[in-house]
Structures are given as structure tokens and as C-alpha cells.
Design brief:
219 residues; alpha/beta; Rossmann fold; 5-stranded parallel sheet; 3-stranded antiparallel sheet; 9 helices; 16% strand; globular; Cytidylate_kin; Cytidylate kinase; dCMP kinase activity; ATP binding; EC 2.7.4.25
């Protein structure tokens, strides 16, 4: 069994790479960010102030999250598309400040990763969630490149987006993720860092597969 942690800031390509690596190794992919987005989405939908940590904590027992056929369900309702916008990303950063939210999600991820080989992407997978993961990768890229990628991704889906707004949201997200008191965004000491600013998907994939093989996994 192998557990691969891929961490990094918003727009660094960690979700894309995690999916590709999981597919190549024929193992499971777990998206931790989606779980935070789901909780943020649920809070906003129910008019919970995202600065009100007590209310967020109190609402957690009402939330049931399931993953079926690579689709996300909130209380038996599929919401895969609803949680893939920039606003949901900001909601995720805000609810992630609540210790009880993090513990709920971390426990879900730990339980799943103990039962099967997995690739998990997030912001504290290698430092907090699975600190004993066999492989730890930390992806990054310039803020401008990350904003461009997010802009291109949303534009390809036919959504009307503004590059400047996306850039501002990513800068805000970086600050929120890096400065929070609970599990701030940072690479694990033993994580292998890859700056993807000037790399395409194929180059990053090749690099990560090489790292995995060097550690005698995925052969």
C-alpha cells in the first residue's frame, strides 16, 4: 500500500496532478479541498456567518459527506459542480480555521487512506493529515501563473470570469492559508518541492513518477 500526499497553494496544479498520478498508478484519489468546500457551501447555503466559529461547529453534525463514483454528495445530494467556483475556494479557507471542521475532515481522510492506496491533495496532508505518508510532494507556482491557470480552466467551462478578480482571490487565499494558526500552509520538512511555473502537465507528471520510482514504489 502507498499513500501519496500532494500539497500546495491554490492553483498550483495539485488536484490535476493527483488525479493523473492516481490514474497512472491505478489507485484512489481523495480531494481534501472538496470536503472543505462542501462544508463552506453548506454554511453559506444555511446563512451561517463564516466568521462565527461556534455556529459552524454546531452545524457540523448536520453534514454528511459521501464520495461515489468520483462524485461528491452532501446529505445525499450531488454537489460536484456547485463547489468548483472561486467563491467556494474562499469559503473553504474560512471554515478551515475552525478546529472541529479540520478534525472532521482529517478523520474522513485518515480512515479512507488506511483502507486503500491513495493520492490525497490539499494544504496540510503531508504535515498534519498523513504525516507518515510514503511520498510527499509540494507543488507551487507564481501567483500570476496560478491565476492564469484558474482563469483558463473556468473559461474552458464556459464561465464568464475576470483574470484580475481571480488573481486577487488567489492572493487572499494564499494569505489566509499561510497565516492561519491551525495547520498553516507549508511544505513538510521531507517533502520534495516542485515549482511548476514553467512546466507543462506532462513534465510535472514525469517528475512525480520519477520520484515515486526512486523510492521503489509504482514500478
Amino acid at each position: 500500500m502507498i499513500r501519496i500526499a500532494i500539497d500546495g497553494p491554490a492553483g498550483s496544479g495539485k488536484s490535476t496532478m493527483a488525479k493523473i498520478i492516481a490514474n497512472k498508478l491505478k489507485i484512489n484519489y481523495l480531494d481534501s479541498g472538496a470536503l472543505y468546500r462542501i462544508i463552506g457551501y453548506y454554511c453559506v447555503k444555511n446563512n451561517i456567518d463564516l466568521e462565527d466559529k461556534k455556529s459552524i461547529k454546531d452545524i457540523l453534525p448536520q453534514i454528511k459527506i459521501d464520495l461515489k463514483d468520483h462524485k461528491y454528495f452532501l446529505n445525499d445530494e450531488e454537489i460536484s459542480e456547485q463547489i468548483r467556483n472561486a467563491e467556494s475556494g474562499n469559503y473553504a479557507s474560512m471554515v478551515a480555521k475552525v478546529p472541529e471542521v479540520r478534525e472532521k475532515i482529517n478523520q474522513i481522510l485518515r480512515t479512507m487512506s488506511q483502507e486503500m492506496s491513495t493520492v490525497i491533495d490539499g494544504r496540510d496532508i503531508g504535515t498534519v493529515v498523513i504525516p507518515d505518508a510514503e511520498i510527499k510532494i509540494f507543488l507551487t507556482a507564481s501567483v500570476e501563473e496560478r491565476a492564469k491557470r484558474r482563469y483558463d480552466e473556468l473559461s474552458e467551462k464556459g464561465k464568464k470570469v475576470d483574470y484580475k478578480s481571480i488573481l486577487e482571490q488567489i492572493i487572499f487565499r494564499d494569505k489566509a492559508d499561510s497565516s492561519r494558526s491551525i495547520a498553516p500552509l507549508k511544505p513538510a520538512e521531507e517533502a520534495i518541492k516542485i515549482n511548476t511555473t514553467n512546466m507543462d502537465i506532462e513534465e510535472v507528471t514525469k517528475k512525480i513518477i520519477e520520484i515515486i520510482k526512486e523510492k521503489n514504489y509504482g514500478n
